Amino acid sequence: MFSLSPPRRTELRAQLALALPILGGQLAQTANGFVDTLMAGRVSPVDLAAVAVGASIWVPAYLFMTGVLMSATPILSRTLGAQSFSRVNPLTQQSLLLALGLGLLMMALLRSMAPVLIWMDVDAALQPLVIGYLDALSWGMPAMALFLSLRSYTEALSHTRPVLLISVAGLLINIPSNAIFIYGLLGVPAMGGVGCGWATSLVMWLMAIMMAVYVARHPVYDDARLSLGQRFFEPATILYMFRIGLPVGLSIFFEVSIFAIIALLISSLGAVTVAGHQIALNFTSLIFMLPLSLALAVTVRVGLARGRNNPDAARQAINTALIITLAIGISAAVLLLLLRHHVPMLYTPDNEVRDLAARLLLFAALYQVSDAWQVTVNGALRGYEDTAVPMLLTLIAYWGIGLPVGYVLGLTDLLRPAMGPDGFWIGLISGLTAAAIMLTLRLRRHLRPTRSA
Questions:
Q1: Cα–Cα distance measured from residue 357 to residue 28, given in angstroms and rounded to the nearest whole number
Q2: Are residues 31 and 170 part of one domain?
Q3: pTM greater than the 0.70 cutoff
Q4: Is residue 433 one of the residues assigned to a domain?
Q5: What does the pLDDT read at residue 132?
Q6: What number of other Cβ atoms are within 10 A of residue 45's Cβ?
Q7: Where on the phi/psi map is residue 427: left (φ > 0), alpha (ψ -120 to 50), or beta?
Q8: End of a domain among 233, 260, 293?
């Protein structure tokens, strides 16, 4: 099953050609957060804290929006696989309308956070800065939604390079934009952390414009060129995209929120524990981008195969992706085992924090294969436009297994003396492993007809 036959080598090259530019784009967007933190921190700790609190609110909203708009990728891939080029334009139009609606909704949501900040008991000195930051950034959410919709269009066409190029361009623009708005340059008043929100909003609009110009002019899109069609509004299509995408958005929210809840629960154990946990989580999140990029690629490949009515090609794409997944997971586990004492040195000089982070990275090594496996299998299921049941399975895995196991082992003496952060990381191992098993069983339902063919 896992030998690299010539067809599998061809599929391997196709998936890597899709996944590597996606990975580069994700790294560039992650670097934006690092730049924002670094530049806001140079103003004052208060500005840095305001940006951090604001990011903890807008990033989950952005990820939810990303998940919903992912629905267009498998639908467009299937359409392109069937050579139904005439349907690509109206489908993309509906995706753009859905994106615009979601972007405006997220904009309104971010501009209504003042009561939430009071309810969360955020420091009174931070609240005006957080509100100003979110208000400024909210103007960019419609643009980012349109960018995400166009990204689905380009990825469905197996053309992922513009995502990389425009994400890198966005990073390069973000640095001087931050300097202008945060520190006050070129006649613009210094805004501190609030200026970071205006810079991010500007970058979002420029990225959307660059993507629109790219797809309008590049010859690779000639067979599926976008234009205003006669049937500009198809409510049934928009509803179907939303029905496919909503579970994806919720799945992402479930995964993001469990890490947030664990961070809150661990916060009662002291600053050293929080710092060590954050270091381990930050580094493993970077590694996770590798299988996540592969998952986005396999969604496209499965969608194309389904459009061609070729279940064997879909199975080939999935098996090839799982081979790569195993390689990524095992390599990541070995890397963490070898470097677990060295990685924390990049983050802090505190020996106590380093020792804890190194111990937690050992637990992280144990779930690398299951984490990579579950996200790849979920990507394959999206290619089949199967999202509702996987959402429920991930909810059970994360909130029904991972979090309770972590809480019981970490903070109670119910089964054994409380293990602190170690218990929560064992909970993560349990939840991710359960997700990998349940999602694999779900995927087998789609592969079974192929095996009997």
A1: 25
A2: yes
A3: yes
A4: yes
A5: 92
A6: 9
A7: alpha
A8: 233
